[in-house]
């Protein structure tokens, strides 16, 4: 498939469109979380658990992916277990560690919430050439790394809005 001609856009316009997408995504996540009886952080963590597929995440892996402390992940896992979405199971390679697995029935409920949207995104991606999709995927991977670095700076206090000159 050959890529279509696209209207020109500046980096500023692209960032503005990204801001709109992210803002709408945040609202959507809140809506989905509410419908599932979860909070957004727990839904985000459950998404990482589901995304791991047949390779269950350790609690530490989940903490790293979600950019949370291990203590915070303990609370998340407690809530996900109480609500029936996930459970801990011993790591067969190291009994001191636990792996997190999604409850299959609960996973189906979550997937059902997202499937129509993901189907629409798949149709949208089908309008792009494989080379364009590769550029989009690369951009998202690199932007994720930049977002993680920015979050680290925020959490470290390096970007204090009350500081002079901020």
Describe the 3D structure.
The chain is mostly helical and 166 residues long. The chain contains six helices and three strands; from the N terminus they run H-H-E-H-H-E-E-H-H. The protein has helices at 11-36, 40-51, 59-66, 70-82, 104-125, 130-156; strands at 57-58, 86-91, 94-102. The chain has a three-stranded antiparallel beta sheet. Strand 2 and strand 3 (94-102) form a beta hairpin. Helix 2 packs across helix 3. The longest helix has 27 residues, at 130-156. It is globular. The mean pLDDT is 92.
Features:
single chain, 166 residues, mainly alpha, 3-stranded antiparallel β-sheet
Structure at a glance:
The protein is mainly alpha-helical and 166 residues long.
SSE blueprint:
Elements: H1 11-36, H2 40-51, E1 57-58, H3 59-66, H4 70-82, E2 86-91, E3 94-102, H5 104-125, H6 130-156
Antiparallel strand pairs: 1-3, 2-3
Helix pairs in contact: 1-2, 2-3, 2-4, 3-4
Mean pLDDT score? 92
Q: End-to-end span in angstroms?
A: 47 Å
Question: Which structural class should the secondary elements be placed in?
Answer: mainly alpha
For the sheet with most strands, the description reads:
3 strands, antiparallel
- The Rg value, from CA coordinates, equals 19 Å
Assign an overall shape: globular
Give the strand order of the largest sheet, numbering strands 1, 2, ... along the chain.
1-3-2
Which stretches are low in confidence, meaning pLDDT under 50 for 5 or more residues running?
A: none
Q: How many β-strand runs? A: 3
Helix content: 55-70%
Strand content: 5-15%
> What sequence of helices (H) and strands (E) makes up the elements?
HHEHHEEHH
**Total helical segments:** 6
